[in-house]
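Bit of a strange request maybe. I'm writing a small parser for structure token strings and I need a real example to test against, not something I typed by hand. Could someone generate the tokens for this chain?
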Amino acid sequence: MFEFTWAWVFLLAPLPWLVRALLPPADSGEAALKVSFISELEGLSGRRARVRLPALRQQLPFLLVWALLLLACARPQWLGEPLPMPASGRDLLLAIDVSGSMDYADMRWDDQEISRLGLVKHLMGDFIDGRQGDRVGLILFGSRAYLQSPLTFDRQTVHTWLDEAQINIAGPQTAIGDAIGLAVKRLRERPAESRVLVLVTDGANNGGEIDPLTAARLAAKEQVVIYTIGVGADPEERGVFGLLGFSPDIDLDEPTLTAIADATGGDYFRARNSEELLAIESTLDRLQPVAQKPTLARATQVLYPWPLSLALLLSVLMASQRLWPQQVQRWRHRLTRLRGQA
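Reply from user aminoacidic:
Good idea to test on real output. This should exercise your parser:
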């Protein structure tokens, strides 16, 4: 089916004539013979002066360019047949902690030390890629919580935005309650049986405006199931940090994370290393999809480049037609002058 996205653009068709009528005529700088008694001549002959046909022919290319530009601006497009979108799946939001403590390299991946956020990117990225049929969204939180990606079937883009997440991009603190509150706001309009939040953090709530348990009760009321994941190695496995007896930021608040999961019907997982996080990913992959209201989408093919290209080509031809004779004449003058000097 053919249609124009912005059909109202055609209302601008009289614009050149309005501009010509409102603005004073341009001064070409050339001498011109003005006949002041044209009206008397028309009265004597009984005929009105008409615009010469060559003048109309000269205007036709400009009119055609203007029509093509209007056509392109109206954004013509061809809509394909309605195609069914996936009718089953979950609405899954990932809330990833990007506070300063997630930068500590107390985890291991392929026998190399890696930061907590780096490990989460590796494994949760694979988890996103495997959520076929699910709408996936991404929340990044630190001192504040921000929606990085709304719920979408475009898992590749969500994966890319997770890979581009930077430490402290949302502030150095940890606002778990705000992240849950933002997730509830985004999930409450989706089918009740499909609302899932996976929250990944390595600390305790020390920022934001909403208490985590209060946010969890709100999530339970809105039937949002929360799976919480606590990231971070045990003190004896923290390498240099463990030897120094240093615990990055504030130690993981496992009781609160467990209470959040229990209040919403989810589970709490502890990820001390890559093997445990892989096992958690496998567990989450077993979430069964649920039936949702089928949706239809149409494949759209934009057609505006065609009239726009024709308008550009015609403009180039018109410009070359005007400039080329002048350039040829200049070359002839130069050749004549060179011959005279010779």
